[in-house]
Amino acid sequence: MSSLLLDEETSHKLSSKLKWDNLSNSNDLEIDSGSISASTSSSHEKPNKDIPQGTTVSEKESETNNQKSKKPKDKKIKQNQQHQPEVDEHPPVFTKPLYQIPDKPYNELSPADKILYKFNEITVNKEKYWLAHTGLTDYQLKIRIKDFLPDNWKDKPTIFYDPRFTLAIYISEIKHQLLENESNNEDSVVVPFAWSDWVDLTMLNEELLKPEGQRKNCEYMKATHHIPPRDPNYCINNAEITRYDLEEMGLPSTDFVPGFAVKKSPANKASNEVRMWEGKSHLLTYAANPLGIVLLSKDGVYEAKIDGKQRIVDGELFTNYLKYNNLEPTHDDDAKVIVNPVKEFNSLLAQVKALPLDPHEDVYGMAAKIKQTDESASRELYLPETAFNYQQDRIDLQIAEYEHRMNKLQALTTNELIFDQKQINELRFTRSEKMYFEGLKYSNKFQLNNEPTYFRMARLVFGNEENEKDAGWHYEWRFFNGALRYLKPGWNREELQIREKVLLDRILRNWFRFANEKGIISWIAHGPLLSWYWDGLLFPFDEDIDIQMPAEELARFSRLYNQTLVIEDITEGFGKFFIDCSTFVHHRGKSYKENHIDARFIDIDTGSYIDITGLGISNEAVPEKYKELVAKNEAQGKPRPVYNCRNLHFSSYDELSPLRFTMMGGVPLYVPNRIEEILKDEYSKGMTSYHYDGFFFIDAINLWIHYTKLEFLFQGQEYKLTDGSGKVDVDKFTNLVQSMTMDQVVQLLDKEEDILLEYYLTKDVTDIHKQELTYLFNLPNGVKTKIGHVEGQKSDGDISGNLEYHKFTSKIKFQTPFRRSVFNYEWIDRPRYHKDDN
């Protein structure tokens, strides 16, 4: 069997019905009608009489209960129900087709057929290979009605959390408000909000169940800090809380505070445990609400405004839900209801059309380009140079326009002779605009070297038994729920690695789902761009995702969506992501106060995030390679076509535009124009080095694998350093890896199930990525070319003028998620399949 990549026979067998034909467009999936097993408790807490419990239910049980509840209680409801469409209660599931292989014993199959045999096993055996089946499961929750009626929560400070409960209640409320208003107008839908319904704060129950005097306090937190907090009053004890504080918190009394209330980040280092206590206390008490909710779907979005701090159980949301489902509020112990967010979401889709993007908001035509049906049309995005020209004159102009508008509003509302309600409605500020205007004025007061730091991370004490080297720089402090590699009780290290992949894949997917639906221009940069080059996936050793956008677009994004909570398409998962934009997005010069990042797209379940940076013109000195270009433009009186982020990464206009439409991990997104030039500047050996931090790239399967899982293949061969250290000689090991045979690949897949599953999940898209590289780069042997033998990027004209390339990109669509949802993995799968480390 030939070494290198794949021989012709193997390549044909593994590629027939792979690539595009075998991928699932996530907009067009089949429905799985099989039953769901398991009845795993949804709560992370041990049962307690003060904390209601929900129970995960099987589909069979759900069907039985739904039949009982279908009879309407009155004629009016019955009439309304007659016009309601049939609603599917299940999410879509994609199952790969089985491959045709010879009818022979496994040992007699060729290496290529052995791999296909293994793939078929994974497809068929969903229980054993559950990680490879990424459809949403266990999405229905049975609860006792009386446990969630407002009367039962008047004096109950404890917290109940289950995303299925929250999402079902909110989606139902949003749908009915839209139906009543007969319009998908986000301004017409208003809902209350409490972070405790949306983030798992049940860790605080440990304190809330105690008498107030026995609860943890601020001194407990400060005792673990490596230095005193920047503001000693960042935290106050219950005894110091005033009624004005309680009003700000939206809490009835200090009994609802866990002993300490955190106002802001202490801006120092602490243990994982204390960082979680602090972040969760802040969310429960002083944290401001988002301004709105955006619910993603495959055909647009649904939006709602948020007003007021109130838990579901303290207001009308749950009783409304019962009313909408023809159920009566009851204190009967036996009365139960199954809440199903998937059913509610599908009902919303069936009855209210999703809000499409207003063409006027598709400023650069990106959304229209992506959704066009002409397969020969280009999906490339040519950005105007003005998109990067966001300087002080633009800031001054905006401030002047907002102040003029504000003055006119004040005159209209304080002078009865010119009062005009129509003009007032036209001129009024939204809360988002008011926040943006205030941010413009505030940031304008500061020079680059004295602006305060905006973002705060969950900085951790490291270099100890609990935490070897994670400094906490990759987690937003408010939503921190334990470091990605922090070994919580009941977890093992393999589970942490899986969780990390799940989180990063889902964050990337949901950012670009949101950005593509809203016409927000962005592209992957830094590590993710290099990772895309190698195999079209995220690196397994990288913990963050970097996104760039033009400075003008960054300002628009901040004005429209700052402080927005984005909800994942419910048929794919229950992810929730918070958009937080720095007050200083209007500054383009170097940051001296850790404000290198302009915005974040934060997974509120974990605190992991995407870093978003704007590229624009500044007065900073450019690198040598750009000086001639800048001088030429300056001589002609033109703005310089070289742009930087606040961490002084520079790119020229021609390096960035046109953006090229591609796919990463099954997610449609954009990459900059001159990929090779950008990557060689930032990573001198990044495009050729097969090794990084113990991982080696395997051309035969297009994956990065840690050397410890490969060593058994090379027993008896010399690949260690000769200095007696026992360390791997990178060059020798790289040569062995590059010459792996297909027999060795089969041995690897036989031994390492996690690699087999990763290969099964990613092979189709990595094959497509290799095909895509043939349009963008010079590959002497076509798709058989090893990534280390690629001979440079093609010219802009060769790429843009290639009709076949445009036909290729016309097929790019969202694919089925590669990973289980965060909810499924953390709440259901991991506890169900957990095995202790040996």
TrEMBL record:
Residues 68-78 have a biased composition (Basic residues). One of its GO terms (biological process) is glycoprotein metabolic process. Residues 33-42 have a biased composition (Low complexity). Signal peptide: none annotated. Keywords: Membrane, Transmembrane, Transmembrane helix. Residues 516-628, 643-683 form the LicD/FKTN/FKRP nucleotidyltransferase domain. This is LicD/FKTN/FKRP nucleotidyltransferase domain-containing protein. It comes from [Candida] subhashii.
